[in-house]
Specification:
- The protein is of the alpha/beta class.
- The protein contains 9 helices and 9 strands.
- A 7-stranded parallel β-sheet has the order 3-2-1-4-5-6-9, with helices on both faces. A two-stranded parallel ribbon has the order 7-8.
- The chain starts with 7 loop residues before the first strand and ends in a 5-residue tail after the last helix.
- The relative contact order is 0.13.
Amino acid sequence: MSKPLPRRILVLGATSAIAAAVARELLAPNAQFFLVARNAEKLDTVRRDLLTRGAAGVATYALDIDDTAAHEQMFSAALEALGSIDLALIAHGVLGNQDEAQTSSKAAAAILHTNFISAVSLITWLANYFENAHQGTLAVISSVAGDRGRKSNYVYGASKGALNIFLDGVRNRIDRAGVQVLTIRPGFVSTPMTVHLPQGPLFASAPQVAKGIVKAIAARKDVVYVPGFWRPIMFIIRSVPEFVFKKLNL
């Protein structure tokens, strides 16, 4: 059963291509946004775009989301601006450099901190907030890379795999309180984060992915692969026996 679009929306990592596209998909005459990202100038660009397109209100908050000690103050500002939160989208993250991360634990830890530890801080606060409110949607962008470790990106994949498991547990805990916890698993998306990669037929655009995300929110899904063809692809990848998989160049 679908539900109406949320009116009070918190977007974390709001300057990412996917997050900005999702915000545009969520636009409605009464929609109010609280946008959080590191770059104040880019935040203002997204803010002005949403207002031009008809958003009822858009507030911004510049924050390095890696700074978990600052999350509580940011959430207080969000509640002051919005009054309450119907939907929180967590969209920040880094791809990182696999070659560097596999030789430097410091580089690996930095990827894990951004993609997992900082997300855990955000999710924990939001899960408690929504559970107490007995409503709301917590949508988190993960990746198909978290479905199985591959030599080409296993540090990034590990950060997303851990995130997936954490979200599974949160969902199991707060679904009964009426809260939707949506794990979003995109495949390759044409964004500034992937501009250095060869763009093949499996790549999707940010607007295409955003439409799939908003559809999954409305349908109260738990997990969504976007585009949908990634679900059977990852099922096959997960099904390959380890004695075969370990010899593959993936």
